[in-house]
């Protein structure tokens, strides 16, 4: 009982932030979206939408060149200095607009090629071209949100997310109901565009006429600083998307689209509860790791994570396992019940993933770019290789077995690498 009381009384447990509210809204929207896909499209449709989501994750990074954290940092630092703030905003907009022009052409012209690579079929060429055309709205929303965060307008960001999510989920649900899989893909593409109109309105109120978008404000030194944030973000986004799309398509090739849909569905469930863990790390632990000066300070932060966060999360995973059938029926549909066999391996992998997250955040806190790159390449190589070895024999279950193996190895490697900061 003392252990539970200590957790409840801890600063971590009592931490209440607007960011957590935002996550709750996103999770609620994700649950509704998943239920609609399950009811009207089924497991095969879940796999297709999963591949589009993975592609859009990569585009998140490429459209902004992975500079979102840099935009927040530089905007916050220069909020009171209008000239320097103009430099930051102009450099950001001009760079991203130029990048967008190139990416739109690369997506639009060979759309059939990308459709085959992402979906395994040329039938979705229209979706790639639609995504290419709406890319400026997609990227614009990401940049505007980063600027608002940097300016400390957290309430505006939360309200944008709340109303944007409501509008996005409502419109996507109607599209799925009326158009099935086509509607789901249109909804996924259109959702960021809806958010754009909310965020551009707020930015226009702060900067009427967008007068800062002028070449004379462009600053090369600021660009260099922003790009320093790009490498790690781009690497994770690209490798992750390529590997997960490859795994889904390999399951479809060897078994069926339904099996790939079960794999995507269990990953989506994992995404909901992992969102809370990663948010708590970002809000609470990353600032503490970044400010830790001595080895003892770092040890204290990491140990508090393992004493409080990991046991609570482990308890949650056990609960998810025993309620797995109920969760499947509530979040999806009876057609998804075969995915019940995937939970044990998925949850095992997620436990090791959460154990390794705090150590992985040390790379960001201390800007250990080279070590981060090596660890990411290693983990995705293990995931891709083990998946291709296990899927032919075990199907979708082989993919989640590979997930468990990958994060067990990843945690072991990081524990050895950071052993002096743990022991």
UniProtKB/TrEMBL annotation:
Q: Name one GO biological process term.
A: enterobacterial common antigen biosynthetic process
Give the membrane topology.
Multi-pass membrane protein
Q: What main location does UniProt list?
A: membrane
- Per its UniProt record, what InterPro entries does this chain match? Poly_Biosynth_Transport, Polysacc_synth, WzxE
Q: Which UniProt keywords apply?
A: Cell membrane, Membrane, Transmembrane, Transmembrane helix
Q: Provide the protein's localization.
A: Cell membrane
List the transmembrane segments.
23-48, 88-114, 126-151, 158-177, 183-201, 222-245, 265-287, 308-332, 344-365, 377-394, 400-418
What GO terms fall under cellular component here? plasma membrane
Q: Name one Pfam family in it.
A: Polysacc_synt
Q: What is this protein called?
A: O-antigen translocase
